[in-house]
């Protein structure tokens, strides 16, 4: 996987804290680069996404 680039980041401030995003705290979501103020906020986001995706996989999502 290529390194994520802050130049591709869709947000300038962390969705959790409102602080500026940092180049070492990026992740990809829905094909977009999303930034966070630190790796802790990034990891909290990734954990929340995993929980959501797991719940949807257990029948919690919309019917196909």
Structure description:
This protein has one helix and two strands; from the N terminus they run E-E-H. The chain has one helix at residues 39-60, and strands at residues 26-29, 32-35. It is globular. 34% of the residues lie in helices and 12% in strands. The chain starts with 25 loop residues before the first strand and ends with a helix. With 64 residues, it is α+β, with helices and mostly antiparallel strands. It has a domain at 9-36. The mean pLDDT is 90. A two-stranded antiparallel sheet has the order 1-2.
Classify the beta-strand content into a percent band: 5-15%
- Portion of residues within helices: 25-40%
The radius of gyration over CA amounts to: 13 Å
Mean pLDDT: 90
Distance between the termini: 31 Å
Helical element count? 1
Major pleated sheet: 2 strands, antiparallel
Give the low-pLDDT segments: none
The backbone outline, from C-alpha atoms, is globular
Beta strand count: 2
Structural class: alpha+beta
H/E series: EEH
Q: Strand arrangement, largest sheet? A: 1-2
